C-alpha cells in the first residue's frame, strides 16, 4: 500500500507541475507525504488519487491546496537572537550603502518582514531601504500586504521584540481594533510584495541582504543546491545571507564563497 501511495504522490506532483507550474517534486519526501496525508484528512478524501482528481479539476481548490502545501509557521521577531545579531553585526554594514535592497524570500504572512522594517526604522536607515517580500502563495501574500494580525499575539510578540533589542514601545507600531492589530502604514512604504517561486523563478535584482529562514529545510538536497546558487547570484559582493537556525551553507557548492558573520545565527557574508 505504501508503494502505491508513493506512486500516487509522484503522479499528483507531476500533474500539478505540468498543469499549474507549481513544482513540489523536489521537496523533501517525508515533509511532502506528511502534508498530503494531512490534506486527505482535512478534506475527507479517501486516497491521493481522489486528491489528484480534485486539484486538477477544481480550480477553486488550488489556492487552498497551496495553503496546505506551503509552510506558514511564523511570528514577529521569531528567534529574537537572530534579530539582535542582525542589529549589531549587519546593520553597521548596511549603513555604508547609499541605498539598500533586501530580499525576504518565502515571506509567508509577513510577520518577519514587518519585524525587519521596524528594526531598520529604529536604526534610521529604513528610508533608504527597499524590501522585496516574496512567496509562492498569493493568499499569504495578501495577508502580508494587509499587515493585520491577531491582537492576542501582540503580548508574545512584544517579548520577542524586546529580546531582539527593540528600542521603543512595540505598541507604537500598531493600532488595536477589536481583536486585530493593524500595523502602521509607514512600515509598508518601502516593501514590495510579489509572488516568486524559489523552485523555478530566477533572480530579479541584486541585493545587499537576503533572508530566507526556515524554508530550505523542506527542500531536498538538489533543490537546496539550486536555491543556494540563486541566492549567491542575487547577492552583491559583501552582501549578507541569513538562514534559519536548522539551515546552513554546509555541503553547498557556494560555501567557500562566504564567510561566517555569526555562525550560530546563520548569518553569512559573500566574499567572492
Automatic annotation (TrEMBL):
Q: Which Pfam families match?
A: CheR (PF01739), CheR_N (PF03705)
A GO MF label: S-adenosylmethionine-dependent methyltransferase activity
Could you tell me the superkingdom of the organism this chain comes from? Bacteria
Domain CheR-type methyltransferase intervals: 1-272
Q: Which InterPro entries match?
A: Bact_Chemotaxis_MeTrfase (IPR050903), CheR_C (IPR022642), CheR_MeTrfase (IPR000780), CheR_N (IPR022641), SAM-dependent_MTases_sf (IPR029063)
Q: Which PROSITE patterns match?
A: CHER
Protein name per its UniProtKB record:
Chemotaxis protein CheR
Species assigned in the record: Chroogloeocystis siderophila 5.2 s.c.1
Amino acid at each position: 500500500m505504501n508503494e502505491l501511495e508513493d506512486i500516487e504522490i509522484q503522479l499528483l506532483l507531476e500533474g500539478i507541475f505540468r498543469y499549474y507550474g507549481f513544482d513540489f517534486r523536489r521537496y523533501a519526501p517525508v515533509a511532502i507525504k506528511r502534508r498530503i496525508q494531512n490534506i486527505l484528512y482535512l478534506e475527507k478524501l479517501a486516497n491521493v488519487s481522489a486528491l489528484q482528481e480534485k486539484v486538477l479539476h477544481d480550480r477553486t481548490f488550488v489556492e487552498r491546496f497551496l495553503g496546505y502545501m506551503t509552510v506558514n509557521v511564523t511570528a514577529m521577531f521569531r528567534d529574537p537572537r537572530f534579530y539582535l545579531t542582525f542589529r549589531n553585526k549587519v546593520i553597521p554594514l548596511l549603513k555604508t550603502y547609499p541605498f539598500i535592497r533586501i530580499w525576504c524570500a518565502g515571506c509567508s504572512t509577513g510577520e518577519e518582514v514587518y519585524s525587519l522594517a521596524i528594526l531598520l526604522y529604529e536604526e534610521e536607515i529604513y528610508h533608504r531601504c527597499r524590501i522585496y517580500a516574496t512567496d509562492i502563495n498569493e493568499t499569504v501574500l495578501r495577508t502580508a500586504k494587509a499587515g493585520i494580525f491577531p491582537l492576542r499575539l501582540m503580548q508574545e510578540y512584544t517579548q520577542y521584540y524586546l529580546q531582539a533589542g527593540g528600542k521603543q514601545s512595540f505598541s507604537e507600531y500598531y493600532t488595536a481594533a477589536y481583536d486585530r492589530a493593524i500595523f502602521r502604514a509607514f512600515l509598508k512604504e518601502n516593501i514590495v510584495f510579489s509572488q516568486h517561486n524559489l523552485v523555478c523563478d530566477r533572480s530579479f535584482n541584486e541585493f545587499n541582504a537576503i533572508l530566507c529562514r526556515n524554508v530550505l529545510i523542506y527542500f531536498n538536497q538538489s533543490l537546496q543546491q539550486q536555491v543556494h546558487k540563486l541566492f549567491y547570484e542575487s547577492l552583491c559582493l559583501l552582501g549578507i545571507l541569513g538562514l534559519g537556525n536548522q539551515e546552513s551553507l554546509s555541503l553547498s557548492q557556494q560555501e567557500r564563497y562566504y564567510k561566517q558573520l555569526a555562525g550560530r545565527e546563520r548569518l553569512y557574508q559573500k566574499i567572492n
